[in-house]
Amino acid sequence: MPDAQFDSVLVMGIGNVLWADEGFGPRCAEALAASYALPDSVRLLDGGTQGLYLLPFIEEAEALLIFDAVDYGLAPGTLKIVRDGDVPSFMGAKKMSLHQTGFQDVLATAAFKGCAPARMTLIGCQPQELDDYGGGLRDTVAAQIAPALAAGLAELASWGIEARPGRTDTGDLADPSIRRRAYESGRPSEDAACRSGDARFLPGRAG
Amino acid sequence: MATTPNGFDLDNSGKRIVVDPVTRIEGHMRCEVNVDEDGFIRNAVSTGTMWRGLEVILKGRDPRDAWAFTERICGVCTGTHALTSVRAVEDALGITIPDNANSIRNIMQLNLQVHDHIVHFYHLHALDWVNPVNALRADPKATSELQQSVSPSHPMSSPGYFRDVQNRLKQFVESGQLGLFKNGYWDNPAYLLPPEADLMATTHYLEALDLQTELCKIHTIFGGKNPHPNWLVGGVPCPINVDGTGAVGAINMERLNLVSSIIDKCTAFVNNVYIPDVIAIGGFYKNWLYGGGLSSQACLAYGDIPEHPNDFSADQLHLPRGAIINGNLNEVHEVDVRDPEQVQEFVDHSWYNYGEPGKGLHPWDGVTEANFELGPNTKGSRTNIEAIDEAAKYSWIKAPRWKGHAMEVGPLARYIIGYASGHEDIKGQVEGLLRTMDLPVSALFSTLGRTAARALEAEYCTRLQKQFFDKMIANIRNGDSSTANVEKWEPKTWPKECKGVGMTEAPRGALGHWVQIKDGRIDNYQCVVPTTWNGSPRDSAGNIGAFEAALMNTKMERPEEPVEILRTLHSFDPCLACSTHVMSPEGQELTSVKVR
User: Fold this and answer.
1) Stretch B211-226: mean pLDDT, rounded?
2) What is the pLDDT of residues B448-505, one digit of tens each?
3) Which segments show compositional bias classed as Basic and acidic residues (chain A) (predicted)?
4) Which chain A residues are within 8 Å of B21, Cβ to Cβ?
């Protein structure tokens, strides 16, 4: 393993846990915290859909590792890793905040300020289902959490950061009531909670 | 041509323009207008194209956890939804909160107001008025002079400073990576600022980014973490230990001093940068007074920032509560969100089914049953709508009404209600601004008025923040360090069935959560959010909603470049997508604008 290259690394899962596979990023962050001990130089964060409000965290980071659901146009559950200058172009279609700031814009803003991280890696998973409000991860996407973590750890290792098996105590994850197990197991039945919607956005559901 | 009960002449015979942005996370919005031969908007149709249905995912959950779900509804108003949710549950269960919890919640809510207003102005709305590409032509020396004339107390004003920003901007534009500013209509004649004002505002865009780094810290201190702070039914989840030295989680003097210094920085920015910018930019657009819509006739606010814990009487709230209808500013009506006859939602033009036409339901009795059907005059197909039929159902947003009236909510509504009811601080601010800008009261009822009200409110909120900070410190000094009441934390202490309502004034307007609890679990949960009010479709009587009304009779310079539409819709700070800056992976614009 190379010597640690950065004093400050941000590992961030982004996306909305309420939109099925869109929750992939935050769920990866949770899984990472539950199974690995990261050194103090690494901050592990559930970024949610906070867009521009994540800028302060990004500015502080010399290196940035992102887990996210990304529409690459590939088969559902496909993992794809992109690095550095290629990262923004893969995050453009994704609107994160209600200020319509895509993560691409957040990275562009960091660059405009002269505060962009020196290294960036995006570990993205092709979602199967995004338009199921209140739903959890589909099996094909959930099965990619472990490979995504392995890829993330390899990336960290290439930056000279070692993660040991264990736990990372961080207050920067979701409240326990919406962590994956509680959230997915507590979902009301389809009879109790109608899930149909606009045919253009919920294909196959609207009657 | 038809005249609506709320007084708008609709004519859908002209050219139809469709603005259909594509976004996913917060829900979608589409807007269609008809423009006459002279370029004036004569019909406006606002469609929410996505159903969120948060209500149904909360069924059966623990009411003490509802805040954590509602915090994820939207990308920015996390805290305000969480606060509304804990208030609703406390109301249902009869839980009172301690004094410090009230002060801390107020400080957090006010911080959100200020933060959101600043981010809205500089990072969403500014590009509707400010042309960053034009800033490249500015003379840094003249920009420095402009800065010193509009805000003598702002220290960052040297020609070298502006030259530096201009150079960075130039490099950025030339590098081609300027996704931020890429898809503007930068040669549209609707942009009126001289290059120096454009450069000054673009520079403040960067300063505002620096400030938000500081503002976030207040939520970290009181909420334990950011960007998703913790909340607690019964109070706030942060113990106070002023004598402590860095104990994990507890609020000590060091942290309180940090809060105080952040409030000071924020106050300075609002007074020296935000307000002067709004006045300076507004001065160039003084003749562009479109976009008033419903604001001159029907405004609604629930009020917020209670002086004392557990007391939501209108005269105890610092942000005003009230309703104005029929344009009568001499009478501000009291609002009761529990009254089944006041707040009601209608679905005659929404893709839901109530079983009978013309029926309105109070949120406690709210029903969310989807019914997607398009009217006979829809153009295109079910999956590719070219033009919607507004005579039929046309939106996923329900139509909330107050005693049958379509209402505007938000900073402008709050400020008109405050002004009309003689609220001392608000009245003083409004009169001062109108005097400075040499504008009549009627100028308030405009897109620019909405933008100005937000800035004034940010200023007022910084003062209130200081006030509640001092109040909390005095209370702690008197020996009260209590921050939560957990007497009724356990479900066994709860009634078998109960219901409650929580209200806040979110940055974008009146927000209510109505909850029913049965056997310790959520039985029904309804949110009526600000954008439901403002973005509402027509109702059974034919009243148009606030977005629709605000677009009416606006002159468009170039119909294929909807600068004016976006300017007005953005002035509401909509919780729905309506951006000119939506990008695909290849960097193309996804927002489509079609003229038919």
Assistant:
1) 86
2) 999 999 999 999 999 999 999 999 999 999 999 999 998 999 999 999 999 999 999 9
3) 182-193
4) 100
Partners of residue B23 in chain A, C-beta under 8 Å: 95, 100
Residue A105 touches partner B, C-beta closer than 8 Å:
yes
C-alpha–C-alpha distance, residues B295 and B450, integer Å: 9
Q: A2 CA to chain B: closest CA distance, Å?
A: 32
User: pLDDT by residue (tens digit) across A56-109?
Assistant: 899 999 999 999 988 777 899 999 999 998 887 766 544 433 334 567 778 888
The C-alpha of A62 sits at a distance from chain B's nearest C-alpha, in angstroms, of 17
Crossing angle of helices B159-175 and B195-223, in 10° steps, is: 90
User: ipTM > 0.85?
Assistant: no
The C-alpha of A106 sits at a distance from chain B's nearest C-alpha, in angstroms, of: 9
**Which residues have a Cβ under 8 Å from the Cβ of B366 and sit 6 or more positions away?**
B55, B345, B514, B524, B526
In Å, how far are B100, B101, B482 from B478, measured between CA atoms? 12, 15, 11
Q: Which residues of B touch A71 (CB under 8 A)?
A: 585
Residue B62 to residue A197, Cβ atoms within 8 A: no
d(CA B401, CA B300): 10
The span from the CA of B185 to the CA of B560, in Å, is 10
Residue of B28, B70, B76, B213 best to disrupt the A interface, most CBs of A under 10 A: B76
Closest in B169, B177, B385 to A111, CB measured = B177
CA atoms within 13 A on the CB side of B128: 28
Compute the nearest-CA separation of A1 from chain B (Å): 33
Q: What angle do CA B28, A71, A19 make, to 5 degrees?
A: 50
Q: Are A68 and A45 in contact (CB under 8 A)?
A: no
Nearest to B77 by CA among A106, A201, A176, A51: A51
Question: How far off is chain A from B227, nearest CA to CA, in Å?
Answer: 7
d(CA B106, CA B477): 19
Nearest CB among A59, A95, A192 relative to B25 is that of A95
Checking if the pLDDT of B298 tops 60, the result is: yes
Distance CA(B543)–CA(B547), nearest Å, equals: 12
Give the nearest chain B residue to A206 (CA atoms).
Answer: B372
Cβ-defined contact of B75 to A97 (cutoff 8 Å): yes
Cross-chain Cβ contact B581/A104 below 8 Å: no
CA distance B269 to B217: 16
Helices and strands (H, E) in chain A, number of each type: 7, 7
Taking the CA atoms of chain B, what radius of gyration do you get in angstroms? 24
Amino acid at A166: G
Q: Please tell me the pTM assigned to this model.
A: 0.91
- Closest partner residue to A108 (CB to CB) among B59, B77, B178 is B178
Q: Would you kindly state where each structural domain of chain A is located, as residue ranges?
A: 9-185
CB A11 within 8 A of CB A29: yes
The pLDDT of residue B100 is 96
> To probe the interface with A, which of B19, B22, B49, B51 has the most A CB atoms within 10 Å?
B51
Q: Strand, helix or coil at B302?
A: strand
The residue written with tokens 């003749």 in the block is B287
- Is domain A9-185 annotated with CATH 3.40.50.2000? no
Per DSSP (E only), the strands in chain A are 9-14, 36-37, 42-48, 63-69, 79-83, 119-125, 164-165
For residue A180, list chain B residues with Cβ-Cβ distance below 8 A. Answer: none
- Chain B positions in Cβ-Cβ contact with residue A50 (cut-off 8 Å): 75-76, 78, 227
Cα–Cα distance for residue pair B347/B368, rounded to 1 Å: 10
Question: Count of alpha carbons within 13 Å of B51, Cβ hemisphere only?
Answer: 28
Kindly tell me the sign of the dihedral angle through the C-alpha atoms of B255, B260, B263, B264. Answer: negative
Length reported for chain B: 596
